[in-house]
Fold this protein.
Amino acid sequence: MDNSHHLGHTFSSPFLLLFLFALVIYLGAVVKIYLAGKTWPLYRLLWWVIGICCGLAAVTGPIAASAHHDFTAHMLGHLLLGMLSPMLMVLSAPITLILRTLNVTNARRLTRILRSKFVAFVSSPVIASILNIGGLWVLYSSNLYHLMQENVLLHLVVHMHVFLGGYIFTASIIYIDPAPHHRSFLYRGIVFAAALSGHGILAKYLYAHPPAGVSAEQSEMAGMIMYYGGDVIDLVLIIVFCYQWYKSARPVRAVGASMDAEKSV
């Protein structure tokens, strides 16, 4: 029990610092914009704060403590850290915010990074889906889940992958921030549908095939949380995606209106 408590504390500390750092940076950027006489949507700030809170709830506090010995709590943390938190943070348009606060030189540097081949590769919906959904399949269909409960570093790496995988996947499907490597709605929609199917199938797989060291009862409950809870979050993504597609397909009334359609959510 003491070892589990020590593991949980060691694991949560880096995430606590990272999320608090992200919160401070975002708030600082918003303050800088307002001091410059410009505006920033308050709803995006609210989504960022809630997204940070969801991420923190997954890696600190009761959920994180229970997740070391309760697979159901672990799955609830997965929904918060790998799905809900990334979705809210993507909707907060952090890259757009940062670009508005940087000087011209630094903004160009950041833009060059966004246009790099590495970002183009990672942000591809297919690659992002493999990193996100494929990573979950590896985690739950192998001995990795059991191993990470006994190794702090592995625990950190897996959870960081879950969060980043969820963020990159979400950003590759719905374009809120600038997307230099733009993919069509049809292409993204097909990949999105395949990824949702993969996530749903994994949830059903967990219902019938518990990971090593997990009881059948906990695995069944976790599978239902992953399936139905994931559906609720996915529904929001579907609505945003379809809304963007609908707006982009409407007759353009002014030059450039279609290019701004995806950023209006």
